[in-house]
Amino acid sequence: MSKKQSAARPTRTSAATVYVSVAVGLGLVALSACGSSGSGSGAAGGDAKTVTLVSHDSWAVSKGVLKDFEKSSGYKVKVLKDGDAGEAVNKAILSKDNPQGDVFFGVDNTLLSRALDNGIFASYQAKGLDEVRGEYRLDKGKERVTPVDTGSLCVNYDKAYFKKHDLAPPSSFADLAKPAYKNLLVTENAATSSPGLGFLLGTAAKYGDDGWQPYWKKLKANGLKVVDGWDQAYNEEFSGSAGGKKAGGDRPLVVSYASSPPAEAVYADPQPKTSPVGVAKGTCFQQVEFAGLLNGAQNEKGGKVLLDFLVSKKFQEDMPLNMFVDPVTENATAPADYTKYAVKIDDPETMSPRKIADNRDDWVKSWTSLVLK
Length: 373
Description:
Blueprint: H1 3-7, H2 10-13, H3 22-35, H4 42-45, E1 50-55, H5 63-73, E2 76-81, H6 85-94, E3 103-108, H7 112-117, E4 121-122, E5 146-158, H8 159-164, H9 173-176, E6 185-188, H10 194-207, H11 212-221, E7 225-227, H12 230-237, H13 242-247, E8 253-257, H14 260-265, E9 277-294, H15 300-310, H16 313-318, H17 320-323, E10 326-327, H18 336-341, H19 353-372
Parallel strand pairs: 1-2, 1-3, 6-7, 6-8
Antiparallel strand pairs: 3-9, 4-9, 5-8, 5-9, 5-10
Helix pairs in contact: 3-6, 11-19
């Protein structure tokens, strides 16, 4: 597996410490600030022409595209990577009175309400926002966050396994609980992983407030395996990934993304005609990822220019092969190498940020008692 493959999408992919305690969180913030050489805010660096982007670990952009932005804007971009998605959001909340940078990238719709309710973002309507598809503008009217990318959380399957065993791969949530797929699925912990949380929300959207728990009882009885985060699930347990093959993974079903097929194929050598990974289209939950201007940003002007860049055609078209996510703007076209292998999900499960906010913590507690105990 290439470096780009192995690093693909840790934003929603690494174990997300969604429920980190305040005490531990403050310690992490302090350690991150001490260890981020040259990655402080404009004020900390004493340079008004430096703009600092705080992000999860999967932030990536082509060097040439970033260099062109820096040349045209006059700002140098410094990036402070703050762990996985949940951890980074918690740090931003804990440090909101003294933000670590100017712009935060990486809060998705599963955690958006937490960030907005804690007031970490200032309103700003990015230039080019009118090109963003309306369904992704979840804070329309207030514009505290700018949609940057989207993608679908889905169960992936190892094509070779199902061909070898002459078994049709699952295509729906209901299929996953059938005896034919016993002991085949690995998922991430909903309390510690953003894809794990997204999969839980997908089942709640599918089966309703009263139906998701009986469904998970069936999954558990059918040999479901739960691990801490995406990297372990996908690159160690899943038999269909390059990392999983190397690690001896024996689970041919894994909770991952609709963009996993291109991630497995684009950087393979030689590049295959088709990806070794398939997607169960009836198991998907839509995620949208946002960026926002941090309240109290030392370089507010530079932060606004950076947000403009994130919805620009150049960045949106560069993004798919760097972070394996889909553009959110009407004027952007994903690269051919990406679309060749990408799986289009026409009708993923969705849930409003308000409903997520009202139920997330209780659902996770119930899920933990039901699945892990």
